[in-house]
Amino acid sequence: MKLVIAIIQDKDSQRFSNALIRENIRATKLASTGGFLRSGNTTFFIGIEDERVEDVLTIIKENCKSREQLVSPISSLGGNADSYIPYPVEVQVGGATVFVLPIEQYFQF
Amino acid sequence: MKLVIAIIQDKDSQRFSNALIRENIRATKLASTGGFLRSGNTTFFIGIEDERVEDVLTIIKENCKSREQLVSPISSLGGNADSYIPYPVEVQVGGATVFVLPIEQYFQF
Amino acid sequence: MKLVIAIIQDKDSQRFSNALIRENIRATKLASTGGFLRSGNTTFFIGIEDERVEDVLTIIKENCKSREQLVSPISSLGGNADSYIPYPVEVQVGGATVFVLPIEQYFQF
Ligand code: NI
Ligand code: NI
Ligand code: NI
Predict the structure, then answer these.
(1) CA distance C8 to chain B (A)
(2) C36 membership: H or E segment, kind and range
(3) Which residue in A76, B13, B96, C24 has the fewest CB atoms around it within 10 Å?
(4) Model pLDDT for residues C38-93, shown as the tens digit of each residue
(5) Complex ipTM, two decimals?
(6) What CATH number does the domain containing B13 carry?
(7) Per the structure, how many domains does chain B have?
(8) Angle at B47 between CA B43 and CA B53, to 5 degrees
(9) Where does the signal peptide begin and end (chains A, B, C) (predicted)?
(10) Residue A2 per-residue DSSP state
């Protein structure tokens, strides 16, 4: 068994959670903030058999990879024409920080 | 020293917390959700000497074991007589997921 | 890589957080309660290269050490003159509990 601790940006945490359920992998979720990732994120604790760690990592990569996204600037109603950016801008979204920890004992009571 | 991470269903977490205090075992609590356990649960971080890990596991078993409980169905006021279940039903309550992790260093500042 | 789990009393957590940012060390924060430390505290997860663990411990010691502080008692308006303590009292503030955990794998996606 390993304990996978995955810190997932809020934007991806619901999708990641759904993917775990589809694969019948149990996780415990804790609300967290900060770190590499922009403000809101969720910390997942996942106890998993050694031979399935790779599966968990694949699910994270498929659902939570950091990527750029085009965001349309909010239209500057009544704003200064000089400061108005008329084209969409790229922002970084998603991303995950993952620790795989050794476990000495694991119990389900 | 070990780090015991115990995920305890909300129904049992206060009782477990009290038991730890009686045994003079310190724990840090984090609000968590999901996993094996039904919705609300609490994640306890317990730093403990190797020779007391067994004590902590016993306290968890005594206070947080998954068990069945009879629940009386809510009376179906004005409901369809055909769909009314007139006898109590068994539901699973309690339960704990426990990880015992090795520690390389432990400090109290 | 190591995973440093630091449980920091609320009184010191903002200062600690700022110190980590100054040193360019990323941390994830989780709200927590109880333990050694008085009521509110914050649990920091810090993934860090082996050779910088000592730096993190130094930052914790410098910002979060348990110490005594003089606190003026709240004036007992209309209270019993016999029970009024007319001098400041020393209370314990700050403090940190720190676990350094081994990591088998670390990823940033
Ligand atoms: Ni294993
Ligand atoms: Ni030990
Ligand atoms: Ni290492």
Answers:
(1) 10
(2) none
(3) C24
(4) 568 899 999 999 999 999 999 999 999 888 878 776 554 555 555 566 677 787 77
(5) 0.81
(6) 3.30.70.120
(7) 1
(8) 95
(9) none
(10) E
